[in-house]
Write a structure and sequence with these properties.
With 237 residues, this protein is an all-alpha fold. It has one domain: Orthogonal Bundle (Endonuclease III, domain 1), CATH 1.10.340. It contains 12 helices and no strands. The longest helix is centred in the first third of the chain and has 18 residues. It starts with 5 loop residues before the first helix and ends in an 11-residue tail after the last helix. The structure holds iron/sulfur cluster.
Length: 237
């Protein structure tokens, strides 16, 4: 079982980075030459939405609204058109426009101080972490339901319902992304959670973490004690 030790963290990081280098996904917002505006828009759109869905309209969105000023001056209906396929489009369009108005007021400048950053309306924990990670090059976690699922399955469950306030999960997420390739570790976790450690039917059989995964070990033991499999070494799908 993978307890939270330095050795297990290192194994987790190395396994995921090796996997990511060959099987990771490529999205326009992972391009190194993005502006601050393009990064924040991508991360805002990615909240509660599949990356593949955002990738279908992100490039055109940026072409139509290339900076904070354009977005602040845009018709909310024009923004809504893009957001219709991802749900809650009215709220999200309003939120984006208000964020743009705020950033124009601030002349596009982001504070380095974490408290001040989170005090900007519409920038919550996730976006603040993304800004720290991608813009300020600090090892912050892009922690969402996908990252939390993988971390909890591998290392063990959190206690609190809300990811943002669970001290175990928060601490753990910072530990796993503390690495010289912090961005890639984050992306690797998100990609691995989307493609291998899926919410429904994780592909444990072929998972390179399965020999030390808490979830996998418990699932095997349960099936063994129920007599569903006849060996603790039987491999689950
Ligand atoms: S073994 Fe299964 S549950 Fe564990 S990390 Fe891999 S896919 Fe996820």
């Amino acid at each position: 079982m993978a307890t939270v030790t330095a050795k297990n963290i290192t194994k987790f990081q190395q396994t995921l980075l090796n996997w990511y280098d060959t099987d990771g996904r490529h999205f326009p917002w992972r391009n190194k030459r993005l502006t601050q505006y393009q990064i924040i828009i991508a991360e805002t759109l990615l909240q509660r939405t599949k990356a593949e869905t955002v990738s279908k309209f992100y490039t055109q969105f940026i072409k139509d609204f290339p900076n904070w000023t354009n977005l602040a001056q845009a018709d909310t209906a024009a923004i809504e058109l893009y957001l219709k396929p991802i749900g809650l489009y009215r709220q999200r369009a309003k939120r984006l426009k208000n964020l743009a108005l705020e950033m124009v007021k601030r002349k596009g400048k982001l504070p380095h101080d974490r408290e001040e950053l989170e005090s900007i309306p519409f920038i919550g924990q996730y976006i603040a972490n993304a800004i720290e990670l991608i813009i300020h090059n600090r090892p912050s976690p892009l922690i969402d339901v996908n990252m939390s699922r993988l971390l909890e399955r591998y290392f063990g469950k959190r206690k609190m319902a809300d990811i943002r306030y669970d001290p175990y999960l928060q601490k753990l997420s910072y530990k796993v992304v503390r690495h010289s390739r912090a961005k890639e570790i984050n992306w690797a976790i998100l990609d691995f959670a989307a493609l291998i450690c899926k919410a429904q039917k994780p592909i444990c059989k072929f998972c390179q973490l399965n020999s030390t995964c808490t979830y996998f070990k418990k699932a095997k033991n349960k099936l063994y004690s129920e007599g569903t499999i006849n060996s603790k070494h039987s491999v689950l799908t």
